[in-house]
């Protein structure tokens, strides 16, 4: 066991503040790192100490693992928590942290590497008995022999996916064979720029799809539990904006099968810590298939925390320190429902284009047992073009889904953010649609219920 008394957070914004709140309760001192653009940021002000690690662009600061490790050593931190994004799923960074004699709060570098390679992760999932979508072998850059044959075998439409991509980045639909090679070339070029690896593979496109994921926690010894499921189908540009737990309108048999598959995968790889196994549910076929495994805390983890009462960050820290006893599987989901939505500085009417600027004034609704707000912004703070433009997450819960929607709608109506355009009106309109209220969710929900002309009028 390793007692952690000082922890460095290799991240910024709301997730850094979220981790700090748990550390403060655990009497753990926190170290913030920041770029020059974030010198006056909320997460810097909330930390016990702060270290500047470089210029505003992420590759010169938040992606500089060497500077982050140097900051940990200089401040006497024993552990590093990566949050999500940036270096959270970098096996090289995780390995460097361990080699520096520090505690890495996450799964092993080997597991991060295995699950970060989408094609390899599919093979591991298949070996664990988890169903996968029909797909192709890997195609590295300039090695496209057999591409047309693989595509024909899968059928159109299909997806071209970056093997090392994630979060909707590096994924493109192709409807005709004659368009395939051009899309593959473009995707490989983008993947090389974004991930340093242009390898792609092909996968069946699911026309009516739901994105359902299972929160798992592994104890590193072949045992794992799930903390139930979430639906993340409401997306724009392949990126989630509304998530809820548990996933609505699933049969208990289907729900239990997904949960069992997720636990099987986590146990097969002897997973340690918090992770999420993501599935695509084919509504027309009534089948679910493995999508990917995220080897980190998720943006949407508060929805799970709101229905279970578990502090996943605390579990992560205790697990990494060897101070967490293996927990038993909760028998059934608590009788409550939680919904999370993400508020962004963006222009929905312009295809959700990011809208950086200075927030002049914020008015949040009052938090209570039914409402949680995760944010790291104050009056006068700037949303810069260097990082993701998410402003906050609102998470509401109730004894049932209808109550959670009502609480979230009321909270959203009380939220005022001035100085930058936001998606608040757009989110409110989604919550009001009959399709959302009836739980008729799918990844194309927004395109189906709110056409571009209507979005432009919000």
From TrEMBL:
Q: Which residues form the Biotin carboxylation domain?
A: 3-451
Q: Which UniProt keywords apply?
A: ATP-binding, Biotin, Ligase, Nucleotide-binding
The residues covered by the ATP-grasp domain are 122-321
* SUPFAM superfamilies associated with the record: Glutathione synthetase ATP-binding domain-like, PreATP-grasp domain, Rudiment single hybrid motif
Entry keyword Transcription regulation: no
Which one of the record's GO molecular function terms can you name? ligase activity
InterPro entries assigned to the protein according to its UniProt record, in alphabetical order = ATP-grasp, BC-like_N, Biotin_carboxylase_complex, Biotin_carboxylation_dom, Biotin_COase_C, CPAse_ATP-bd, PreATP-grasp_dom_sf, Rudment_hybrid_motif
Cross-referenced Pfam families: Biotin_carb_C, Biotin_carb_N, CPSase_L_D2
Which PANTHER family does the UniProt entry name for this protein? CARBOXYLASE:PYRUVATE/ACETYL-COA/PROPIONYL-COA CARBOXYLASE, UREA AMIDOLYASE
By what name is this protein known?
Acetyl-CoA carboxylase, biotin carboxylase subunit
Species the sequence originates in: Roseovarius pacificus
């Amino acid at each position: 066991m390793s007692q952690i008394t000082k922890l460095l957070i290799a991240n910024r914004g709301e997730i850094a503040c979220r981790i700090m709140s748990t550390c403060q309760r655990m009497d753990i001192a926190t170290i913030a790192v920041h770029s020059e653009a974030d010198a006056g940021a909320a997460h810097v002000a909330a930390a016990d100490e702060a270290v500047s690690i470089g210029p505003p662009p992420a590759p010169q600061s938040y992606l500089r693992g060497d500077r982050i490790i140097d900051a940990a050593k200089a401040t006497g931190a024993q552990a590093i928590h990566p949050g999500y994004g940036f270096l959270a799923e970098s096996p090289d960074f995780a390995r460097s942290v361990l080699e520096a004699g520090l505690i890495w709060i996450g799964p092993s570098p080997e597991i991060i590497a295995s699950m970060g390679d989408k094609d390899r992760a599919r093979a591991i999932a298949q070996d664990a008995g988890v169903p996968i979508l029909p797909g192709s072998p890997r195609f590295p850059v300039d090695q496209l022999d057999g591409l047309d044959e693989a595509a024909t075998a899968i059928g159109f439409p299909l997806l071209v996916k970056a093997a090392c991509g994630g979060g909707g980045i590096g994924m493109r639909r192709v409807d005709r064979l004659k368009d395939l090679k051009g899309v593959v070339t473009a995707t490989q070029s983008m993947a090389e720029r974004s991930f340093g690896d242009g390898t792609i593979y092909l996968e069946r496109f699911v026309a009516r799809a739901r994105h359902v994921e299972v929160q798992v926690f592994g104890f590193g010894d072949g045992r794992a539990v799930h903390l139930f499921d979430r639906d993340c189908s409401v997306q724009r540009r392949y990126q989630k904006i509304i998530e809820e737990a548990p996933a609505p309108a699933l049969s208990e048999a289907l729900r239990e099968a997904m949960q069992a598959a997720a636990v099987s995968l986590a146990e097969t790889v002897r997973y340690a810590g918090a992770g999420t196994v993501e599935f695509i549910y084919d509504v027309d076929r009534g089948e679910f298939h493995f999508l990917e495994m995220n080897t980190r805390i998720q943006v949407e983890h508060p929805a799970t925390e709101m229905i279970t009462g578990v502090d996943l960050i605390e579990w992560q820290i205790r697990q990494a320190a060897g101070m967490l006893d293996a927990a038993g599987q909760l028998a059934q989901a608590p009788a409550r429902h939680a919904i999370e939505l993400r508020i962004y500085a963006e222009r929905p009417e312009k295809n959700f284009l990011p809208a950086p600027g200075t927030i002049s004034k914020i008015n949040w609704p009052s938090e209570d047992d039914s409402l949680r707000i995760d944010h790291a912004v104050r009056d006068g703070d700037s949303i810069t073009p260097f990082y993701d433009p998410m402003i906050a997450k609102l998470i509401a819960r109730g004894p049932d889904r209808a109550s959670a929607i009502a609480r979230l709608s009321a909270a959203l109506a009380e939220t005022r953010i001035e100085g930058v355009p936001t998606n608040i009106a757009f989110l409110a309109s989604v919550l009001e649609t009959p399709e959302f209220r009836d739980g008729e969710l799918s990844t194309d929900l927004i395109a189906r219920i709110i056409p571009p002309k209507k979005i432009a009028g919000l």
